[in-house]
Amino acid sequence: ASRGRHKRSGRSRCPDSNSIAGRGILAPAIINEAQIPLTEEEHELLKLGPRFIYNDPKTASRRRTTELATLKRKIEARFFEKKVSPGRPVEQFIAELDVLLQKLHNSPINYQKQKDIANQNITYDNLLSTIQSSQSQVINLRNTITKKKNYGRLIKRLKHKLHLKNIIIQKSDKNKVFHLGKLGDYRKKSEEYIDKTKAYKCLGTEDLLSNLIYHTNKYLLDLRLAKWITQKQYEKLCINSNEVELAHLYYLPKAHKPDTPLRPIISGLKHPTIKISKFLDELLRPLFNKMAAKTTVNSGFELVKQLQKWSKHNIRQETLFCTIDVADLYTMIPQTEGVLSLKKMLDHLKFKQVGGLKIETIIRLSRFVMQNNYFSYNGQFYHQIRGGAMGSPLTLTIANCYMFFYERQIVKQINNSGGLYFRYIDDIFLAINWPARHLFKQIDRWNHFDENIKLSEKIGSTADFLDLHIENQDGQLFTTIFQKPSYEPYYLPYSSIHPLHMKKNIIFTMLLRAIRYCSTFQDYLNEREKLRIALLLNKYPNKFVDEQFNYISSKLNIQSLTYNNYANYRQQVIDSPIKEKVPVDYAKTIFVHFTYCSSMRTFPRKFHALWNKYFGDSPINEVLPILGTRNVKNLQRQLIHTK
């Protein structure tokens, strides 16, 4: 019933890839499929992972003038809205803020404090050394503290080395660690993928951008002149030639699968049709979500709640769980039928127009987006002639609509049999009280509903769907967290220059997930300790981890979890309503962003004190400044080039 697991071959995790015996935990790794020799320094850098940001006060200082000028314009605009002159307080506030930021950017790093934090981890590294034989890690850690690293120079040297060796560095598709692959392998797999899908037509080496800009603006102007769209909509959607660039294709290596297939991503953030795609998606996706609310889930937690409800009256000893994968969904959907599925949705919901647009206008614009997916790859230009671009917002909504109408008969059949059916994009989950032979026969029948949809199934008393593991144990439902065999315990490193609340949020989110997913206290304890080990491997101090664990318990009103009370507390957590986002009152809010560096931990408090000093009794005293951070480039942005 299940496709066999394949051994991973031809790759190495370099160099400390040993698993912690019996725990299924791996140290954060690099997947070095190219098997390029790395120095110890290069390996330590890559092991920090794609999200790591090193301290860079020079960049923060360089950006300060622009950031202050932006903030000044925003404050002045609020005064002008009140028909009041900004006056000297704004000038004085900006000047004092400038002095404060200069001091913070020029603050020396407290290396003694970093040593103290590191020493908390060294104790744990010594504990792990018996398992991982990595005592050298401790020495390396001390060295990195006593000797300030020049990350910029190290990154530049590594990029040059990889370029000379024709090595591509990418973030792996699922486990989000660095993957090193050979350029030749990427090109070969790309050719095989393009040939297999028949979704792309090569147009040669002539740049298509200027022609596509002209074609897009002319199409929008024709719609405006024919009064299909308003002047305001036309101005919103038309494009400036200085602000656009042709989409480009790149691949993420699926290192968790045999032979490392590639996931194609068409990056079109500045593509000429992106404005239309976003505009349509913002209109249509909420409508799809409403239409498909009873047959779709967006997380493992949503499925836990549905399974709990269903299993109370329906689960039996012979109940089967089934997961179904839809092959190459984005590229297999025909463009014409995909766009028509949007019309089907609007007819189904009995809409005559959406957001002031007639249905015919929506269909015309959607067709234009689908038929004008052009991109570059390896010096050649391509046109996507089948399916939608994986990376275009509208593609997901079209794929979802197409699947909704494909699956209606299946959903009806499952519901009539007292089963459970849910889908997340191209992954389907079923729970049903049918004999396995009958279920196989039905899936084979469903595979003939549409020549574009190819299903492959796994059937049994256990199932893995998204990040949820599900079991039927003699008619009892059990759930816990699912981690792929290729799982890497990589989290944002504690030493990364991110605000502390981001690191706290990681622990909160992961432990909350453990409580929601784990149906037994023992599974919860196992997952909590796996999380602790993963955090310690990413250099989180043990004391900090314990503090966050305790904070989560108090936040969830949990006194102390035990075998006896776990089920009741867990159910309270599952049943507690998820807080809805409070809508932002933009008229009374100013968003403030400054580039973050390690010396700016006290900045929020000092900023708000200054704000109250100058504007507490001013005409804009009801305006609330919301302080956000800008980051310098992380390792992913510094090392990886997708073009």
From TrEMBL:
**First and last residue of the signal peptide:** none
Residue ranges of every copy of the Reverse transcriptase domain listed in the record: 233-481
Residues of the region (Disordered) are 1-20
**Ranges of biased composition (kind: Basic residues):** 1-11
Superkingdom to which the source organism belongs: Eukaryota
- Identify the InterPro entries for this entry: HTH_animal (IPR058912), RT_dom (IPR000477)
Which Pfam families does this UniProt record tie to the protein? HTH_animal (PF26215)
By what name is this protein known? Reverse transcriptase domain-containing protein
**UniProt organism field:** Rotaria sordida
